[in-house]
Specification:
Blueprint (H helix, E strand, L loop, with lengths): L1 E5 L2 E6 L2 E8 L17 E11 L1 H16 L4 E4 L3 H9 L1 H5 L2 E2 L1 E3 L2 E2 L6 E2 L2 E3 L4 H5 L6 E2 L6 E4 L4 H4 L5
Parallel strand pairs: 3-4, 4-5, 5-6
Antiparallel strand pairs: 1-2, 2-3, 7-10, 8-9, 8-12, 11-12
Zinc ion (ZN) binds next to loops.
């Protein structure tokens, strides 16, 4: 594993998989990552990304464009909720990648706990296409948690 420091972002590279942690903002030159990833399909995990701003999104687009231009398909795993909202705001960005799973803000109606569990896209594909978030078990009391935000903020990209 190679660890890169790009501004306020830390990137772990394992083969064709990049795990991003930290902030995607004006401190990051994400395009630099293209040359660090092997040719062929690429997977990007943003589970530990905590912040994305508009400049960060420009960097994100640079990364996606660079990877696609050389023929890589891009799978996103455990997309951070902050990035997921951006991808839903700019639908074109979501069409350039395959979203395998993503984090979303959930609340438990039984105990009031809040959490950001991972939603598996394949497992819940029909629900997601219908713009409905699956209920997921509460980490505190195991009751069924509901999405704690407007579904379109997370699910627009799955519209059939
Ligand atoms: Zn609960």
């Amino acid at each position: 594993m190679t660890t890169l420091r790009l501004g306020r972002l830390e990137v772990d590279l394992v083969g064709a998989r990049a795990v991003l942690a930290g902030r995607i903002d004006d401190s990051v030159s994400l395009g630099d990552l293209v040359a660090q990833l092997p040719v062929g399909p690429v997977t990007i995990d943003t589970s530990a990304v905590t912040f994305v701003n508009s400049i960060g999104m420009r960097e994100w687009m640079r990364l996606v464009r660079g990877l696609r231009e050389r023929g890589s398909t891009i799978t996103l795993e455990r997309v951070a909720d902050v990035l997921m909202m951006q991808l839903n705001m700019f639908g074109d960005l979501a069409r350039q990648v395959t979203i395998a799973s993503f984090h979303a803000q959930y609340v438990c109606p039984a105990c009031g706990a809040e959490a950001a569990p991972v939603v598996d896209v394949q497992q819940y594909a029909p629900l997601l296409r219908a713009q409905k978030a699956p209920q997921l078990p509460c980490p505190e009391c195991r009751a069924a948690m509901d999405l704690g935000d407007f579904p379109e903020r997370y699910l627009s990209v799955f519209k059939g």
